[in-house]
Structures are given as structure tokens and as C-alpha cells.
Design brief:
Elements lengths: L1 E2 L2 E2 L2 H16 L5 H13 L1 H23 L4 H12 L7 H47 L6 E2 L3 H7 L18 E11 L2 E10 L2 E9 L11 E6 L2 E8 L2 E7 L3 H15 L1
Antiparallel strand pairs: 1-2, 3-4, 4-5, 5-6, 6-9, 7-8, 8-9
Length: about 260
Amino acid sequence: MEFCGRSWGKAEMADLWTAKLDIYLDGELSASEMHDLDAHVRSCPGCAADVLRRVQLKRGLQAAGRRYTPSREFREGVLRQIAAPSRRSPARLWLTLTAAAAVLFAVGLVVTRVGQNRSERQRAFSEIADLHVATLASSNPVDVLSSDRHTVKPWFQGKIPFTFNLPELQNSEFTLIGGRITYLDQTAGAELIYQVRKHQISVFIFQDRALSPALRPESNPQRELSFTVESWSQDGLHYFVIGDAGAEDIAKLADLMKQAAR
């Protein structure tokens, strides 16, 4: 079998796939390797199960990390203790230290807030990528299998706390595969699976108010891990379009979704 321009034996290929799974989930493979491993995961039950286990472990570790993140009040208390001057210090030194501590605290608060927003955004996009990978690796990627939007949309009624519209795909390169219920931060949403040529693209839809404010501004197509992602808010819903297809394909499908929601 040939992989990345080199011929490999069957046993060597099995070891190679296994060795690359963690790198695959971390998004550190090249585009060609990502495409090859995507195809392998979809055809190999053993690797698909392994990917699902690793995704679940990764999400569990992320949840544990968030649970034990120090609160803002805790950090502010530490800063105040560090900045507190000694009672035996001269008055002028006390005033100088107080002013310096105030400036450092203000700068630190701004840096912390920016860092928290960036970290929250990266975490959420990482979870979206994990959900997409888990779908690719699943032997049953959709709960409702149909290319008819009039079949897929009604299936979600009563299963999620909102409704949405799906685009008409005639004269486009995209094919609707189906949909499934998904969860982000214990919030129920819809995942729609589309195909363009040999690429599968996930469209995630959640209630806007259920997501972190760091995710709400609109964004142009961008690379997150090994995938291209576009996200935006519209009429109280937040959309994520993610896949290993090119930015042009992601943008086209996002435009179709935006037009259908109007």
C-alpha cells in the first residue's frame, strides 16, 4: 500500500496509522496526510473506535482543566497580597508601590481578559473539531439519513429547542448526507453532514445564547487545527461550518446556509 509517496507493508501501515492518531486529533498533519488518514479511519473499524476513545479522553481532560481553573477573584486576591506594602515602609515608598501595583493590576486584568477570550475561543473550536472527527470516525455518522432537506429538517423537531432552515442545493456541488443530534458544553444542537467531491463537511447549529460570548462575532474562513472553519451568528442561532475542504468550498456552503436562514 502506498502512503505519502512510499510503499508500506500491511503490518507497517497498521503501526503507522496508530502512531499518527494523536497527531491527527491534534491537527498537526499535513493536508495530504489528513486526507489519507480521514479515508482510512472511515474504512477501518479498529482505528475508528480508537479515534472515538481518544476524542472522549481529550474532551474529558479539557473538562477537568476547566473545572480547576483559578477564578478571577482568586487571581485578584493573589495580586493584592503581592502588591500590599509593608507597614514599616516609608510613606513615599508606600505610595509608589501602590501606584505601581494599580498599574500592574490594570494591565494584568486586560491581558487576562484577552487571554481568557482567546483560550475560550480556541477551546470551543477544538471541541467543534473533535465533534467533526468523531462523526468521520463513527460507523453511524448520521441519525437521519437523507439527501432531502424536507426529510432532515422535520426530524429535528422536538429533539432540539430551536428550528432552522436548510438550503436548496440544486445546481451546487454539495450533497446533503443527513443529520444528527450533537452537544457542545452540554447544550443540544444540530449537526448536518454535507459532501463536496470526496470531502465531508459538518455544519453545527446551536442557540447563540448558549455559547460563550467569545464565539459570537462573525469570522471569515480560517484554519483551526487541520480544518477550515467559518462561524457566524444569525437570528439567534450560531453556525459552524468545518471540514478539510478548501476555504472556498467552506465559504460557499456557509453562504448557502446564510441565504436559507433569511
